[in-house]
Amino acid sequence: MPAEQEKKDDGCFATTFERKYYRRGGAFVKRSLRPREFRTGYRGLHVPRLNTERLMNEAESLRFIRLHTEIPVPKVYCDFEDDDAYYLITEYVEGVGMSELTDDQKAVVRKELEGHLTTLKNLKSNRIGGPSGIVIPPDRALRSTDTDTWSLRLSDWDEYVFCHNDLSQQNIIVNPDTLRIEAIIDWEYAGFFPPYFEWPFFNRLGSSVATNDEYDDSPDLLEFLTSQKCLRRRKRRVMTAGEGTRKTSDVGNLMFVEEVFGFESYGGPVAGLYSACERRVAHLTSEELDIIGRNSQKRMLAEELSYDILVEHQHDRNAVVWDNTLRS
């Protein structure tokens, strides 16, 4: 690893398939993985879905909750994009996860948590989605489909309530002495949705997906989102290996999958997303535009009210390095 990269990773205490986490004094930093950092698991290369948009949504959700409620959440210091990674910097909250408590202690915490959930349900909107202006489906809904891409759109309906959508025990930080909740964290999937989206995963250990002996509500969520035209399936797989589709010999064995996420704007934060995409496209070489298709840039800048994001898959690390060309 280059010295510059080692310096950047100084203080990193955890890395997942989607994020890197840092603590710098009283600040907590989490950032998205850069495309060149994408990791390979037993299913192949893992390309995080809505990687940047989820952090944007979390930042705006934290600001929204602090402004409109007394629910304890970390203070947002800043959020920004740099070198193909999105950063969210908040205050570091001392405490332990609810998962580390005894059953009797959890019962005390649960009473306070139920009050906070009532507060969230009193926040209502007739527009689905997060304060960021983006609709981020709950993780369990995204996991339940093999769709290559989703086009997300805002939709008017009846009143929605504000949901955290990832309320597991590890996301509830507690003072171990007083048993008071110090912070509820990880608001990446938060937004206004029907009340049943907020499943009480905090009642047991584990992540915010159904276990083998629990009812899996993800098909219900997808059915609702599809019926409200919040999700529109749009596959656009190009230049993938072994599928008989187009391959460009100029770059050896390096092939990509184009993933497109479209957002309809009602003003505000989404405009920043457009600018970020425009900057990203500007750094592609003519060869790379040929690989993706010469019309991709035009589609990204002009297709209805959508803003496309290209997410590359690097299948051969010995091939021409695409990653560096995407750096600002």
Automatic annotation (TrEMBL):
Organism: Colletotrichum tanaceti
SUPFAM superfamilies (alphabetical): Protein kinase-like (PK-like)
Name the record gives this protein: Aminoglycoside phosphotransferase domain-containing protein
Domain Aminoglycoside phosphotransferase per the UniProt entry, residue ranges: 49-198
Pfam families: APH
InterPro entries for the chain: AGP_Transferase (IPR051678), Aminoglycoside_PTrfase (IPR002575), Kinase-like_dom_sf (IPR011009)
